[in-house]
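thought: user wants a sequence for this fold. calling inverse folding tool.
action: design(structure=
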């Protein structure tokens, strides 16, 4: 049959609403923000700029795949840590 209205109100006041709240996130923007904070990506970007300024654009262009590789590894490892934390802790202590 189910709960009466009184039982529902009592249960909600005691245990809280039976709902999930999700924060709408823009994954691409979050990844870019995270990459800006990565020291290795910053170092590679600065090095690439130095190559271009010093007149060695070939070396600067050659460094671009390394920047993409480091950024990709950092992004994937962050996502895997979040998934691992979600599975193990059941969404407790997950950074937002």
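)
observation: tool returned 96 residues.
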């Amino acid at each position: 049959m189910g709960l009466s209205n009184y039982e529902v109100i009592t249960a909600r006041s005691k245990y809280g609403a039976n709902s999930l709240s999700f924060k709408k996130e823009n994954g691409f923007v979050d990844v870019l923000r995270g990459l800006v904070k990565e020291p290795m990506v910053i170092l590679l970007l600065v090095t690439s700029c130095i190559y271009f300024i010093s007149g060695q654009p070939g070396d600067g262009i050659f460094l671009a795949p390394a920047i993409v590789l480091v950024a990709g590894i950092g992004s994937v490892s962050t996502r895997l840590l979040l998934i691992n934390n979600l599975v193990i802790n059941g969404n407790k202590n997950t950074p937002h």
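thought: summarizing for user.
answer: Here is the designed sequence. Residues 25-89 form one domain.
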